[in-house]
Amino acid sequence: MNLPESYIPILIQAGVAVAFVAVSLLGAHFLGPKQKKGNSVKNQSWECGVPVEGNARTPFSIKYFLTAVLFVLFDIEIVFFYPYAVNFREFGMEGFLAVLTFVAIFFMAFFYVWKRGALDWDK
């Protein structure tokens, strides 16, 4: 297999990343604290010194997950705006039209979410 020369740095970076993960996981396993399985009181869950009540598998409202997805959506929007804000003069009219298209699509998604009631927290 003959790889182009431009792939070598990518392969080196991927190898370093995989090696770092492997060393970190193995180091944590071998150097980390060991728990004894026989001590049931010590292995119980505590939250700020208060005994646990109920089951940890209690279902959550979908609003928590929807809030997280919307946060990621708005956060990614900012990530895409940053390069345009830094280089807006070099992009010219073509870049401006591309950003307007992005904003239009984003606002369509925002109004869709709004109309579906995802932003009504009282319901």
From TrEMBL:
A Pfam match: Oxidored_q4
Membrane topology qualifier: Multi-pass membrane protein
Keywords carried by this UniProt record: Cell membrane, Membrane, NAD, Quinone, Translocase, Transmembrane, Transmembrane helix, Transport
Places the protein is found: Cell membrane; Membrane
UniProt keyword annotation of Zinc present: no
Annotated Gene Ontology cellular component terms: NADH dehydrogenase complex; plasma membrane
TM spans (from-to): 6-32, 64-84, 96-114
Gene Ontology MF annotations: NADH dehydrogenase (quinone) (non-electrogenic) activity; NADH dehydrogenase (ubiquinone) activity; quinone binding
Protein EC: 7.1.1.-
Domain of life: Bacteria
Chemical reaction(s) catalysed: a quinone + NADH + 5 H(+)(in) = a quinol + NAD(+) + 4 H(+)(out)
Family of this protein: Belongs to the complex I subunit 3 family.
Stored PANTHER family: NADH-QUINONE OXIDOREDUCTASE SUBUNIT A (PTHR11058:SF22), NADH-UBIQUINONE OXIDOREDUCTASE CHAIN 3 (PTHR11058)
Functional summary from the UniProt entry: NDH-1 shuttles electrons from NADH, via FMN and iron-sulfur (Fe-S) centers, to quinones in the respiratory chain. The immediate electron acceptor for the enzyme in this species is believed to be a menaquinone. Couples the redox reaction to proton translocation (for every two electrons transferred, four hydrogen ions are translocated across the cytoplasmic membrane), and thus conserves the redox energy in a proton gradient.
Subunit description: NDH-1 is composed of 14 different subunits. Subunits NuoA, H, J, K, L, M, N constitute the membrane sector of the complex.
Protein name according to UniProt: NADH-quinone oxidoreductase subunit A
Protein species of origin: Chryseobacterium kwangjuense
Lineage: Bacteria, Pseudomonadati, Bacteroidota, Flavobacteriia, Flavobacteriales
